[in-house]
Design a protein that fits this description.
SAM-dependent_MTases_sf, 9 helices, S-adenosyl methyltransferase, 37% helix, Rossmann fold, 265 residues, alpha/beta, 9 strands
Length: 265
């Protein structure tokens, strides 16, 4: 089953947009020349951004499969969906548990348009879409509550999105307010780019100076702070390549992104 929200506003293709640039780095086709130019300029300063984008997508898949397979989670609230590429949340979850329900949240009209066209659901489960802003956590939860069963655990997913909240205290409060609406036994799954490489910081500052929506890189300890009061799932909040990596004959390549999963008591 698929539930759809009303369409968003007009799509602005005159300035680069983070979701479309991310799609470009992932090898997707849902981007424009302005996004490609911005992405190439970023990668000239920090070439590892393409690897970070792909490592973060791999982390999403591993985290969702772990929650569905090891913890029996059947409900996922994915805020900051981004443009659909391979191994979206509903695909990873429903591959393990076809009855899983996924609610995607974004406020980019292009993201919502492609979500309606490309993000489908297994018949046993459901996929829904909400047009909402992360700055309004209560509004998000008010719309999500009729679509999910808030008496049962929900996996709240904030994947590479909190950097768009520049104020550190506000970012923490948004996370707390979202979690407060969820029942005990729910999970926070989160990753963000980390200010652990000078070239990464420089590339982000130059991108922010273009007038595009800025993104705040935080320290690993600041990222860990979002999980305060939660029980961390091993191995904790670690670099993305070190979080339960898939078996491989070669060691995983290091990336400047940190993530983890925490369980609400």
């Amino acid at each position: 089953m698929t539930t759809q929200s009303p369409p968003g506003g007009p799509i602005d293709t005159s300035v680069p947009h983070s979701a479309r640039i991310w799609n470009y780095w992932l090898g997707g086709k849902d981007n424009y020349p302005v996004d490609q130019e911005a992405g190439d300029a970023y990668a000239k300063v920090y070439p590892d951004i393409v690897h970070l984008a792909r490592a973060s997508r791999a982390f999403l898949g591993r985290a969702v499969r772990h929650l569905a397979g090891e913890h029996g989670v059947r409900q996922f609230l994915d805020i900051g969906t981004g443009l659909p590429v391979e191994e979206n949340t509903h695909q990873a979850a429903q591959r393990v548990a076809p009855e899983s329900h996924i609610v995607y949240v974004d406020n980019d009209p292009l993201v919502l348009a492609h979500a309606r066209a490309l993000l489908t659901s297994r018949p046993e489960g459901a996929t829904s879409y909400i047009d909402a802003d992360l700055h309004d956590p209560d509004g998000i939860m008010d719309q999500a509550e009729p679509l999910l069963d808030f008496s049962r655990p929900v996996a709240l997913m904030l994947m590479g999105i909190l950097g768009h909240i520049n104020d550190d205290d506000e970012a923490v409060q948004i996370t707390r307010r979202l979690l407060d609406r969820l029942p005990p036994g729910s999970f926070l799954t989160l990753y963000d780019g980390a200010a652990t490489d000078e070239a990464f910081v420089e590339a982000q500052e130059e991108y922010d100076d273009t007038g595009a929506i800025p993104y705040r890189l935080r320290s690993p300890d600041q990222i860990r702070g979002f999980f305060a009061g939660l029980d961390l799932i091993e191995p904790g909040v670690v670099p993305l390549h070190a979080w339960r990596p898939a078996p491989s004959p070669a060691p995983p390549r290091e990336v400047d992104g940190y993530g983890g999963i925490g369980r609400k008591r």
